[in-house]
Design goal:
Largest sheet: 8 strands, parallel, barrel
Structural class: alpha/beta
CATH superfamily of the largest domain: Queuine tRNA-ribosyltransferase-like
Number of domains: 2
CATH class of the largest domain: Alpha Beta
Order of helices and strands: EEEEEEHHEEEEHEHEHEHEHEHEHEHHHH
CATH architecture of the largest domain: Alpha-Beta Barrel
Strand order of the largest sheet: 4-6-7-11-12-13-14-15
Length: 385
């Protein structure tokens, strides 16, 4: 893995280039949320419909594979690339995801981290976690962490940092020859513990940093201070990854602090609810946008395609959108699919929402390269709030 920062904007936001596997990806960038290595509704043959190479970063939790094939079998097959047939994509492994494999702080102990998984509540030890990493063979993986919610005590925050640093050293000592290592940084809502953890991890031989423990109860108002406490202690030349920030405002908040990679379940939740992203991705359209209240009660960023108002709507989801869904289908057709409970509705919606959200990241990179990120951020937040 190689990473280089190419542009800064307003002090914290930065644009760079990440060389991972055979792909070269511009940052800030999105990791596509997956279930067992594949997007939730998009089949492998439809992945080519998504913008490339932006869509080649796939977030995966090794815990997903605890049901079904054994780790020994996955290793014999040749890891996730051979198992799934995705040789041009890059897998980024993080212990938890934000849908099914959530950390359970009250059950975590000094032996290992506890997670709620489809297989029930499991205690994962560092040596077991590294067996999963060795078997699945991702291009990039984050070390095991003791993630805690925002409301725990100062003593519990300190314990989480001590355990995470201890497990970091164990994971590094057991790490396979391939795959870039991202050191986990935790500390809950404590600025002091966040800063201490970041300083400790920065002294280790890692390729980048995973900021964990966010999106677990802290407010948006207290998050900037937590992010700044971490980022200020990290070297600039290494990439930063974050989980748990999914809304567009949260993404912009993370980028303002200097985060490069984002794992987000926003697309999944939109798609599951029958929503489609519709906010304009062209600066001229943004400035000319009329924000009058919508007839269907949706906010200006998305529309609810289950609504009866779309039953006879022959327009694409977004006029001028180049995604497969908008080029081939209408709002009326997707409304019909949703109302008769056809899975094709979620497939078409996930294609559009992924395409649109990747376009949002492209707009952000353009704003950073032009030196106007903070202006772009203020415009976006003010218009949609």
């Amino acid at each position: 893995m190689k990473f280089a920062v190419k542009a800064w904007s307003n002090g914290g936001a930065r644009a760079g280039i990440l060389h991972l596997g055979t792909s070269t990806i511009d940052t800030p960038s999105l990791l596509l949320s997956t279930r067992k290595g594949l997007p939730h509704f998009i089949s492998p043959d439809l992945l080519s419909c998504l913008p490339s190479p932006e869509s080649r970063l796939l977030h995966v939790s090794p815990l997903h594979f605890l049901e079904g094939l054994s780790m020994k079998t996955i290793s014999k097959i040749g890891g996730l690339h051979q198992l799934l047939g995705l040789h041009d994509h890059c897998f980024v492994a993080v212990p938890r995801d934000s849908i099914q494999c959530l950390p359970e702080a009250s059950s975590t102990n000094k032996i290992g981290a506890s997670f709620e998984t489809p297989c029930g509540r499991l205690l994962i030890k560092p040596v077991e976690y590294m067996e999963m990493i060795s078997s699945t063979r991702p291009e990039l993986w984050a070390t095991l962490a003791d993630e805690v919610p925002a409301w725990v005590s100062d003593k519990r925050n300190k314990t989480s940092v001590d355990r995470t640093i201890k497990w970091l050293d164990e994971c590094i000592s057991l790490s396979p020859a391939s795959g870039a290592v991202f050191g986990a940084i935790v500390g809950g809502s404590s600025l002091e513990e966040r800063r201490r953890c970041a300083q400790e991890v920065a002294t280790r031989n890692v390729s980048g940093y995973w900021v964990g423990g966010l999106g677990l109860g802290e407010s948006m108002d207290e998050r900037p201070a937590l992010l700044n406490a971490v980022i200020e202690a990290l070297p600039e030349e290494k990439p930063r990854l974050i989980c748990g920030l999914g809304l567009p405002e949260e993404i912009l908040q993370g980028i303002a602090a200097g985060v490069d990679l984002f794992e987000s379940t926003y697309i999944y939740h939109l798609t599951l609810g029958g929503f489609a992203l519709t906010f304009p991705l062209d600066r001229t359209q943004i400035n000319a946008l009329n924000l009058a209240p919508s007839d269907v009660g949706s906010d200006p960023r998305k529309i609810n395609l289950r609504a009866t108002v779309f039953r006879k709507d022959t327009m694409p989801i977004v006029e001028g959108c180049t995604c497969y869904t908008c080029r081939n289908h209408t709002r009326a057709y997707i409304n019909h699919l949703l109302n008769v409970h056809e899975m094709l509705a979620q497939i078409l919606l996930e294609i559009h929402n992924t395409h649109h959200f990747l376009g949002f990241f492209r707009l952000i990179r353009e704003a950073i390269n032009a030196g106007r990120f903070e202006e772009f951020r203020k415009e976006f937040v003010q218009r949609w709030r």
